[in-house]
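Dear H.,

Thanks for agreeing to be a second pair of eyes. The structure we're designing against is below in token form, covering all 555 positions.
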């Protein structure tokens, strides 16, 4: 993924200030804070971090996108900025998840980067979960500079900081102790706490207990409770462990000069990592970055999601049914502290409708407001918009046609042309067409799917009443030779009018409205064996003359 500082031609002056009169949202305010932290005219570092201990789900995605939108806003202003992402792949492997060979328990306590990939497709457990997220982030237009904490620790990058932490460990412990909620038992002997945790040289696990530290030699003695190894690691020359989390995070703020970094709401509570880190970071000569806490992201309508095996859905899962700008929009249109759900059920159709309506609003400069600003951020990063379909067809239309055509892209394309959306090739409908096909196939419950009858319902046809027979006869007589959705709609709604001696374009009476309901139910019964289904004109256009006549005619 492209790394490094981004600095396009200034949009609002290289000082980082925004143009007056512009709409303001949470991204604007967070960017302002980042500039103030860095100082006017200075480069800004926006940081994110994640532990690749499992699939990076849509809740974790908020970490990446919150930073991305702030960095992207600064980029639009012409401010030199970098989105620095730390992979916490030097964290310990904590548990063997369901579906993984239980023998992987052998690796508990080892760094994620040192645990083999049980699926045997990447070099480690950590890389197995980084790879799909990298691909999804690229599709979302997220550019970031990636660093591996395994590589940095093992390269000795933090030796000076580790020695500082050990030399000032009592000061660090005083800070941590102030935030502990559980007081030590009276009279109990207090063991010395150390801010550094070694990985065992013999078995590679962090199941170690520090027994002594020699200030002069910087030898840290320890024992391992699993393999029984006892020995020492020299902190000035060897790189065999890491700082504990509540010391590690503020150390990196100071080391990288972080100006903005978000975190889950739990990180901002009393005694949490950010709260404690604001004090610990001073030990390393730094200060805490500007911070926003983000709320929970929930999920619904995902019972059929296969790739996550019943777990929380990932960005890759979401991008199967949501265009990249829409997924970005879900995260940018709300302040980070607001919680929300991503619903993969029927709400997807309404979500696309809302997105399309916002796009039409955004086309009118006089209507530019905070909602349109969110749309502008969502359509793509400062480097340019993300791919969208050259011909925009409502998602509900595409999914409806995909349903009744059994997902054939070519057939869908033909029907879409007939229902009023002219296009040259199937490619003109992408990427939305693929999303509609995937959603229909994977997320629409079987009971809600439209299955066209393979044979006429001869029993129902033989028992038709006089009015019902007349309706079907009139429909078949008046269907146009070229099935287009508008004239077919006129006929379908007009048949009950004709049966009452009215013109096709006559205003519907109460009797006509009642007859239309019965007629529509009859058509659904005979075509798809249900009382309701996709819009009848679309269904008839999709089926074509031959199929409609065969299913509606008594043999």
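And this is the sequence the design step returned. I haven't edited it by hand at all.
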């Amino acid at each position: 993924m492209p790394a490094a500082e981004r600095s396009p031609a200034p949009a609002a002056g290289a000082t980082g200030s925004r143009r007056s009169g512009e709409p303001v949202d949470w991204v604007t305010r967070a960017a302002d804070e980042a500039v103030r932290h860095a100082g006017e005219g200075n480069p800004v570092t926006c940081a994110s971090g994640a532990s690749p201990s499992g699939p990076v789900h849509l809740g974790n995605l908020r970490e990446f996108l919150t930073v991305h939108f702030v960095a992207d806003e600064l980029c639009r202003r012409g401010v030199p900025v970098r989105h620095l992402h730390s992979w916490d792949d030097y964290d310990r492997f904590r548990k063997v998840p369901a579906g993984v060979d239980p023998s992987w328990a052998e690796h508990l306590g080892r760094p994620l980067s040192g645990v083999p990939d049980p699926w045997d497709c990447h070099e480690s457990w950590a890389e197995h979960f980084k790879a799909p997220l990298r691909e999804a982030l690229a599709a979302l237009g997220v550019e970031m500079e990636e660093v591996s904490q395994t590589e940095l620790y093992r390269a000795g990058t933090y030796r000076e900081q580790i020695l500082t932490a050990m030399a000032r460990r009592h000061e660090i412990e005083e800070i941590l102790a102030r935030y502990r909620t559980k007081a030590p038992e009276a009279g109990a002997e207090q063991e010395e706490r150390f801010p550094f945790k070694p990985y065992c040289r013999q078995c590679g696990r962090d199941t170690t207990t520090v027994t002594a530290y020699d200030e002069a030699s910087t030898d840290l003695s320890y024992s391992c409770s699993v393999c029984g190894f006892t020995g020492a690691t020299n902190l000035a020359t060897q790189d065999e462990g890491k700082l504990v989390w509540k010391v590690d995070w503020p150390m990196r703020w100071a080391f990288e000069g972080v100006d903005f970094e978000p975190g889950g709401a739990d990180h901002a509570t009393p005694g949490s990592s950010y709260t404690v880190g604001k004090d610990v970071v001073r030990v390393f000569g730094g200060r805490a970055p500007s911070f926003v806490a983000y709320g929970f992201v929930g999920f619904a309508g995902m019972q059929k999601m296969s790739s996550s095996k019943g777990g929380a859905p990932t960005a890759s899962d979401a991008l199967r049914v949501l265009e990249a700008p829409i997924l970005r929009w879900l995260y940018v249109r709300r302040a980070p502290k607001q919680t929300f759900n991503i619903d993969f059920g029927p709400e997807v159709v309404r979500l696309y409708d809302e997105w399309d309506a916002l796009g039409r609003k955004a086309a009118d400069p006089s209507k530019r407001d905070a909602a349109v600003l969110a749309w502008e951020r969502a359509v793509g990063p400062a480097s340019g918009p993300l791919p969208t379909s050259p011909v925009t067809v409502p998602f509900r239309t595409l999914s409806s046609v995909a349903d009744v055509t059994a997902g054939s892209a070519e057939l869908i394309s033909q029907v879409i042309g007939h229902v009023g959306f002219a296009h040259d090739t199937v490619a003109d409908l992408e990427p939305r067409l693929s999303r509609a096909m995937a959603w229909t196939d994977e997320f629409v419950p079987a009971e809600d799917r439209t299955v066209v009858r393979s044979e006429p319902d001869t029993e129902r046809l033989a028992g038709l009443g006089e009015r019902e027979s007349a309706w079907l006869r009139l429909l078949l007589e008046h269907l146009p030779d070229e099935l287009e959705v508008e004239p077919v709609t006129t006929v379908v709604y007009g048949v009950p009018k004709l049966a009452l001696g009215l013109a096709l374009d006559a205003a519907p009476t109460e009797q006509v409205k009642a007859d239309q309901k019965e007629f529509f139910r009859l058509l659904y019964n005979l075509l798809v064996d249900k009382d309701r289904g996709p819009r009848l004109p679309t269904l008839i256009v999709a089926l074509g003359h031959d199929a409609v006549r065969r299913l509606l005619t008594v043999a």
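Two observations from my side: The two ends are 64 Å apart (CA to CA). The longest helix spans residues 510-528.

Warmly,
E.
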